[in-house]
TrEMBL record, chain A:
Residues 74-265 form the ABC transmembrane type-1 domain. It is a multi-pass membrane protein. One of its GO terms (biological process) is transmembrane transport. It comes from Ruegeria atlantica. This is L-arabinose transport system permease protein AraQ. PANTHER family: ABC TRANSPORTER PERMEASE PROTEIN MG189-RELATED, ABC TRANSPORTER PERMEASE PROTEIN MG189-RELATED-RELATED. It is found in: Cell membrane.
UniProtKB/TrEMBL annotation, chain B:
The lineage of its organism: Bacteria, Pseudomonadati, Pseudomonadota, Alphaproteobacteria, Rhodobacterales. The gene is lacF_1. It is a multi-pass membrane protein. One of its GO terms (cellular component) is plasma membrane. Belongs to the binding-protein-dependent transport system permease family. SUPFAM superfamilies: MetI-like (SSF161098). Its main location: membrane. Pfam families: BPD_transp_1 (PF00528). Keywords: Cell membrane, Membrane, Transmembrane, Transmembrane helix, Transport. InterPro entries: ABC_transporter_permease (IPR051393), MetI-like (IPR000515), MetI-like_sf (IPR035906). PROSITE patterns: ABC_TM1. This is Lactose transport system permease protein LacF.
Length: 279, 304
């Protein structure tokens, strides 16, 4: 092996740099989490110390539980995210199949039309979206958010999924046709199971931006019963700025679900990004 | 020969996606651009042509805010390009080293801020930088730099740069991942061929790897551009709709929100809001076109 490429001193320097940056990346999250379990005095006296028997306190969490309806917010975020992802995957896969499988007039144009939305953010159309939602009575309902996120996620989903569907073997589909399967059965029974990894990639890509979005919940569904967790914690924290225990606990409660999701899906996410899905 | 039967299933497969996408994305987009040409007089909608844009660009009250937001937005973008992307590339270069242990661990940890919401990030940093809590000053004190501390988010001259750096902290994971993916596709033979010619270590990065990942750098640049020019959440979460202090952190997203939704005593004006959205659309379109026609087509792609 060539020595110049694997110098041990370089290795130490590389680990040093990476550890330093990892600390920078994790430090704020760590500070918030440990301080959320401390009493008010301990938060200010020793902000960097871990909570011990003396300083441990759940007072912040108690305030949050009493004041904010975090379970409702969490449930709303869950409904919106899961419903939007299902629609993105189902509609996106169907459109991707039509574009990649069949030759028809306007195929290319349709593909380009659907790809337009990859680069243009849907937020530009907010004024008209709000007007439309008011006119149809969908404002302050979770449907408004689900529709918007579905529309926002479709372009990239169609793009990624049609790349993958082109790789599904024609022989398989033709064998199905000879056996008399309908085009729908071929799609749902033969093709969809084969592109499952690509579907997972699309799902993980869309999940985080939908869960974390503040703009559309703020504009389309700010009512108490439709608040998402992101908007709910924003409003809650805004009201309790001076109650540090409550703010730190609310932040921790907002961090935890995402962190859990990330631990579950991080391999999928990283594999999705590194497999070059965004080329 | 008969004309082939109309293939209904193609329509069925395409219809849901095309309908939702057209109704909720494309139609409102053009409708917003159309609304920018109207105004409201005595509670009825009146067509005024380009007058809203004229107000936006030249009326002293509006134009001062608009150019301020646009200038701030460019500064926001510049910081991302100068700090976020180089750090992302450097981290990716370190992570892609073939002999590095714990690479997956570092990668997952550094990506964590990217998955957090702006609300969490905005407030977390607000608390850490707060002079009341004192984490930032006491940490600076520990390395003997206490005199450098200032309430960065509260000072007009620092607030925007501080927020841009917070955003960089949050999103460095994205360029890191994309560049990392690009570096992994470089075949070992090319690097070995370089080694035989005596090109190793840092030289190999600058002379072999960097030219090969230029297309990915182009992609992260345009993603950064589009993301920054419709940013809103971080500023809103940490500084509020007024983008304080004294509008020094106002960018196009917060300006548009204030204008069309209204805040405090100012009533919302959907038509001026649409005009700002139109300006944002034009800026993003110009950026994407420069990328597609000016950069991407001229970039040499190496067949690997």
């Amino acid at each position: 092996m060539n020595k110049a490429r694997h110098n041990p001193l370089n290795m130490v320097a590389m680990h040093g740099a990476l550890i330093l940056y990892t600390l920078i990346a994790l430090f704020p999250v760590f500070v918030i989490l440990i301080n959320s379990f401390k009493s008010r005095r301990a938060i200010f006296r020793e902000p960097l110390a871990l909570p011990n028997a003396d300083s441990f306190s759940m007072i912040g969490y108690e305030t949050v539980m009493k004041q904010g309806d975090f379970f409702l917010y969490f449930q709303n975020s869950m409904i919106v995210t899961v419903a939007s992802l299902s629609f993105i995957l189902l509609f996106g896969a169907m459109a991707a199949y039509a574009l990649s499988e069949y030759q028809f007039k306007g195929n290319l144009i349709m593909g380009l039309y659907l790809a337009l939305g990859i680069m243009i953010p849907i937020r530009i159309g907010t004024v008209a979206i709000l007007e439309m939602m008011v006119a149809t009575g969908l404002v302050n309902s979770l449907w408004a958010l689900i529709l918007v996120y579905t529309a926002q996620g479709l372009p990239l989903a169609v793009f990624i999924l049609s790349e993958f569907m082109r790789q599904v073997s024609d022989d398989l589909k033709n064998a199905g046709r000879i056996d008399g399967l309908s085009e729908y059965t071929i799609f749902f029974r033969l093709v969809l199971p084969l592109v499952r990894p690509a579907m997972a990639t699309v799902a993980v890509f869309n999940m985080i931006p939908i869960w974390n979005d503040l703009w559309f919940p703020l504009i389309l569904a700010p009512a108490e019963e439709t608040k998402t967790l992101t908007l709910g914690s924003q409003v809650f924290i805004g009201q309790f700025v001076t109650d540090w225990n409550a703010v730190l606990s609310a932040l921790s409660m907002a961090i935890l679900p995402v962190l859990v999701l990330y631990v579950i899906f991080s391999r999928q996410l990283i594999r999705g990004i590194t497999s070059g899905a965004v080329k | 020969m008969n004309r082939p039967r109309f293939r209904w299933h193609i329509l069925v497969f395409l219809a849901p996606a095309v309908l939702v996408y057209t109704a909720v994305m494309i139609f409102p987009l053009f409708n917003t651009l159309r609304l920018a040409l109207y105004t409201e007089i005595d509670q009825s909608r009146v067509f005024v042509g380009l007058q809203n844009f004229q107000t936006l660009f030249f009326d002293p009250i509006w134009s001062e805010q608009f150019w301020n937001a646009l200038g701030n937005n460019f500064w926001f973008f510049l910081i991302h390009m100068l700090v976020q992307n180089p750090i992302g590339i450097a981290l990716a270069a370190l992570l892609s080293h073939p002999r590095l242990r714990f690479a997956a661990l570092y990668r997952s940890a550094i990506f964590i801020p990217t998955i957090l919401s702006f609300v969490i990030v905005g407030f977390a940093w607000k608390l850490i930088l707060s002079p009341i809590w004192g984490i930032a000053p006491s940490m600076l004190d520990a390395v003997g730099l206490k005199s450098l501390f200032a309430p960065w988010l509260g000072k007009e001259e620092y607030a925007l740069t501080t927020l841009a750096l917070i955003s960089v902290w949050q999103f460095v994971g994205i360029p890191m991942m994309l560049i990392y993916a690009a570096l992994l596709t470089i075949p070992e033979e090319i690097l070995e061929a370089g080694e035989i010619d005596g090109i190793t270590g840092t030289a190999a990065f600058w002379k072999i790897k960097l030219p090969l990942i230029l297309p990915s750098i182009g992609i992260i640049s345009i993603l950064t551009f589009v993301g920054n020019f419709n940013a809103f959440d971080l500023i809103y979460a940490s500084q509020g709709a007024l983008a304080g202090p004294d509008f020094s952190t106002d960018i196009l997203g917060t300006f548009m929100y204030r204008t069309f939704f209204g805040f405090q005593l100012q009533l919302g004006d959907p038509h001026m809001g649409s005009a700002i959205a139109g300006a944002m659309f034009a800026i993003i379109l110009v950026g994407v076109c420069i990328y597609l026609f000016g950069i991407q087509t001229r970039m040499r792609r190496y067949q690997l």
